[in-house]
Amino acid sequence: GDGRGPWFGADLGGGKFYCDNPSIVCSTNKSITTWAFVTGMLKGHSGNRFVLKAGDAQSTPLQTMWDGARPAGYSPMKKQGGIILGTGGDGSNYGKGAFFEGCMTGGVPSDEIDEAIQTNIVAVGYGR
Predict the structure, then answer these.
(1) Which of 6, 41, 65, 109 pairs with 16 at a CA distance of 20 to 30 A?
(2) What is the pLDDT along the chain (128 residues), one digit of tens a residue?
(3) d(Cα 124, Cα 5) in Å, to the nearest integer?
(4) Dihedral angle, C-alpha 84, 46, 113, 22, nearest 10 °
(5) Interatomic CA distance for residues 47 and 5, integer angstroms
(6) Rounded to an integer, what is the distance from CA 100 to the centroid of its chain?
(7) Where does residue 29 rank: exposed (0-12), middle (13-18), buried (19+ CB within 10 A)?
(8) CA quadruple 100, 83, 15, 93: dihedral positive or negative?
(9) Is the dihedral of CA 53, 10, 105, 49 positive or negative?
(10) DSSP string, 59-115
């Protein structure tokens, strides 16, 4: 990602990805150092596309951190194994922070729905 990190990324099973290429700095994926609470969304569109969105869960709006091609080897999308929200399955101790809530949807919600969800999260008042 851009800056010193941390960044919001996707654990796709064979590594953590912040864009389509783990060997480059993903300039669209900005550091989230000033956010005490983070909203993160991974959207798996059909075709060779995935989207990462993140935002400060205490204010709006969301920022698009990546919208583009999947990493090499991930198109078509693979769905083996289980889906775990809030923790990685690699047994490492690299994760930081605490996980509060998560959800999965069928299909890919619109950007308007994403923003409505973020507005609702902000209204909850994390950190107050």
Answers:
(1) 109
(2) 888 888 888 877 777 889 998 888 899 999 988 899 999 999 988 889 999 999 999 998 999 999 999 999 888 877 666 666 665 555 566 666 677 778 888 889 999 999 999 999 999 998 88
(3) 26
(4) 60
(5) 29
(6) 15
(7) buried
(8) positive
(9) positive
(10) S---EEEEEEPPPTT-SS----S---SSS-SS--S---S--------SS---HHHHH
Report yes or no: 74 and 126 within 8 Å, Cβ to Cβ: no
Dihedral over Cα of 66, 70, 71, 77: its sign: positive
Residue matched to tokens 């583009």: 68
Structure tokens at 89: 């399955």
Q: How many CB atoms lie within 10 A of CB 64?
A: 18
